[in-house]
Amino acid sequence: MSKRKRREIRPEERDLWQSYASDMKPLKRDRPLVGQPEDAPAAPPIASKSAKPPPRPVKSAASSKALGAANPAPRMDAKTFGRMRRGKLAPDGKIDLHGMHQDAAHAALTSFVLGRHAKGARLLLVITGKGKAGDDALWIERGILRRRVPEWLRLPPLGPIVLDVTEAHQRHGGSGAYYVYLKRSRLGPANA
């Protein structure tokens, strides 16, 4: 590979920078660096090749934009949770709430989740849609079901039977759908 030749700075660029930087002042430190006299200029830190970069913060697998940043860890088996997040588990039931008003969607969701739980289902897919970003957003709130469904799933009567709610994998709808993982039914599928 050939090295790229550095471009020379043109006189008008140098003049522009000088006029911009002429009224700048360096930041003052409250206290000198350790082992450095107060009147000595601050030296930039020297990065060694063996120095490791600081570790990145670990993003929780349960975090989801729609569910908020302060999500607790999943309340289910980690292996199952990972398979669910990767879209490897087939949902036991699916409901599509597209185009429904809030009241109708809430009633349909409650009926669907309670009914499927009674039949022993564990993983449900709830499709809300992403909501439209329209030009007429004067008073119409867009994507309301996408925001409200996780709230409804945490409140009674659904909250006690729902273990986890997380954004669906792209093959199941991505950010326009949720996986709802339910607790085991006490009756079980055979007795339902």
Question: Features of this protein?
Answer:
elongated; 5 helices; 4-stranded mixed beta sheet; alpha+beta; 192 residues
Structure report:
This protein is an alpha+beta fold. The chain has helices at residues 11-21, 78-85, 102-118, 144-154, 188-191, and strands at residues 93-96, 123-127, 162-167, 177-182. The chain contains five helices and four strands, in the order ααβαβαββα. It has a four-stranded mixed beta sheet, with helices on one face. Helix 3 (102-118) crosses helix 4.
Stretches where pLDDT is under 50 for at least 5 consecutive residues are 58-71
Which word captures the global form? Answer: elongated
Number of strands: 4
Backbone structural class: alpha+beta
Question: What's this model, at a glance?
Answer:
It contains 5 helices and 4 strands, in the order ααβαβαββα. It has helices spanning 11-21, 78-85, 102-118, 144-154, 188-191, and strands at 93-96, 123-127, 162-167, 177-182.
